[in-house]
Amino acid sequence: SSDLAHGVRTAWSAGCRTVILTNAAGILNPDWPLGRPIVITDHINYTGVSPLTGPNPPAPLPGRFADMSAAYTPALRELVHRLEPGLPEGVYFGLRGPQFETPAEIRMASILGASLVGMSTVTEAIAASHLRMRILGLSLATNLAGSIRRRPAFSCSASITRSIAVPLTLARAALVGRAVARWIARRQMFGRKGRISAPLRR
User: Fold this and answer.
1) Model's pTM, two decimal places?
2) CA 91 to CA 110: how far, in whole Å?
3) DSSP code at position 193
4) Per-residue pLDDT tens for 149-160?
5) Tens digits of per-residue pLDDT, 173-195?
6) 101 is annotated as an active-site residue
7) Which of 78, 84, 89, 101 is labelled catalytic?
8) How many CB atoms lie within 10 A of CB 110?
9) What are phi and psi of 19, to 5 degrees?
10) CA distance 202 to 185
């Protein structure tokens, strides 16, 4: 987990105070279209690890008991919705992997309130939140989680492999990249020195 957080911590050390985390994720909502970005509102860390495990870091870094009550900055989400109305939002359920999720794990994630599932992002988000960075999380919906069928929901009928998720990710990654570039270029998301130009509510 420390290795995964290294990039975030390096960016913070270089002066970055806002981070955009992206991933490819399975979706639990069978009505959402595939290939669409989903804005992350929160996450459930089911990886079993944390980048904050161990002794407190030296000053001036904050203590390791990080506040995660508003990790995914509400002001950033509001700005994204202002620029891209209609983008859905959801809670990301982070698994350790590398195996794909089981039907039982998907049912559990749904009961806990998740609508996205994947194997990344939570470690980086914890590290960034610990450093009090502003976080925007985006998931690209690449497949129905655990081979969920459109009807009925949460019924498994076929295996899921990387051959399903990877081609769609490659096909739509450029679209997501262009969207993020537009948001940054509008300067409504970032002001000078990487600061948000709108007031934050955290």
Assistant:
1) 0.82
2) 10
3) G
4) 554 433 333 455
5) 777 888 888 878 775 555 544 44
6) yes
7) 101
8) 19
9) -130, 140
10) 24
